[in-house]
Hints:
Layout: E1 6-10, E2 31-42, E3 45-53, E4 64-65, E5 68-70, E6 82-83, H1 87-94, H2 98-116, E7 121-122, H3 135-142, H4 148-155, E8 158-160, E9 164-171, E10 180-188, E11 202-208, H5 210-218, H6 226-235, H7 241-246, E12 253-254, E13 257-261, E14 264-268
Domain Nudix hydrolase: 30-230
GO molecular function, one term: metal ion binding
Organism: Amycolatopsis sulphurea
Amino acid sequence: xxxxxxxxxxxxxxxxxxxxxxxxxxxxxxxxxxxxxxxxxxxxxxxxxxxxxxxxxxxxxxxxxxxxxxxxxxxxxxxxxxxxxxxxxxxxxxxxxxxxxxxxxxxxxxxxxxxxxxxxxxxxxxxxxxxxxxxxxxxxxxxxxxxxxxxxxxxxxxxxxxxxxxxxxxxxxxxxxxxxxxxxxxxxxxxxxxxxxxxxxxxxxxxxxxxxxxxxxxxxxxxxxxxxxxxxxxxxxxxxxxxxxxxxxxxxxxxxxxxxxxxxxxxxxxxxxx
Length: 274
């Protein structure tokens, strides 16, 4: 599916967009991050799990997003029990070294568990169906009291990298003061598990058809950033989550450009070098 070249959004409430943290005016270096597009199959078609972020949050406050967040240095722990495509394979998909690839996959699994309660782990033969025994570990992970590798080892679980697929690579625009270099993954809700809103980062969560979420954004009922909007637009073409996971994708690094245009911000989506 060809991406549209531009999206136009209202200017955010903050004054101006060309704000940078660096004293010399150079772009802020983006922090590595991972986002997971969580899918399930409903009676009327494919649905995606969405979170409405708390308005006071420093990044994307008040916006509707997929679960995800910044990579923790401990996500690179090579001792993590692992099943599925190797870190080197993920590095090839996301054009990064093996260490960062491992951290990105671990960060994706950790953030998904912290923010939605969905745990992409188990044994090499089975996926966790009941996450109730791990509620306290989830809270400890969110408080950064334990690492993902430590939690999995204590619980006797293995990270299931085979439940994830690479989807996209987005970098926050150079004009923004807080930036993330984010790899997007896609995963199917494991059988027996449910996604919830037990996270401090969201005040509302839910499953929705992609087209319905876009309609809500067009009618002003939710805010979507360009990567979320375009991903939802792409997911409309799939009847099932398996079909979405099966599609091979070329991962292209995209750094949107923000251009003031009167009372609007024009978002240019052409892939660029950062």
